[in-house]
Fold Hydrolase TatD.
Amino acid sequence: MKLIDSHCHLDNERFDSDRDEVLARIEERLEFAVNIGYDLESSKRSVELAESHDYIYAVVGVHPTDIGIYSDEVEAELEALAKHPKVLAVGEVGLDYHWMTDPKEKQQEIFRKQMEMARRVGKPVVIHTREATRDTLDILKEYPDVRGIVHCYPGSYESAAEIMDNYYFGVGGVLTFKNSKKLKETVEKLPMDRIVIETDCPYLTPEPYRGKRNEPVYVEYIAQRIAEVKGISYEEVVRITNENTKKAYGMVK
């Protein structure tokens, strides 16, 4: 059984020199990968990749550190893109209080606007949250009819439990790091039926390739580590997380 990468950035410039080779490895070794937008242009590129490759799907949205571009016109274009049949969700959207390129209040405003857009188009969301867990959870609770994935989940099990009915939790390469004690403890407690696997490539490369560019086929190292942490087989991790990803993105009921 082939794995799925639920969150990647294949349109990133770090793939410009060998993107075709990276895509060929995805086609050969994965079931599919989901390419995630972070602004209008990357969202358009994501849709283009999905249109030209059967094994790529797209997500469109504006990342909290890129909301300076946001306007009614940008929202209208994103909403049109979000209706494309190969666009699975709106994202990645949310809050980032680490970089703080815009004030918290502005981030929260644009976050809510994109949550409302997801509601209008009837698609899930992919959530980015950094140093903003409490505010993120509170806003997600304002939209009980919207579901999705909290990407690179950084919080505790207790925080996850607050939104577990509606959200899956993305686990990536950080779990393979020696200093990932907090994430390991969270993954130990999270039910397997709420976990999805992601690379966030080209970032957060798992061991044994840490420090090098990440790519989607490295999901296998994350799956192996989840199997170790949960005390189950690698095959079971693949089966369950693939099913979770398809449910999270509304591909199956």
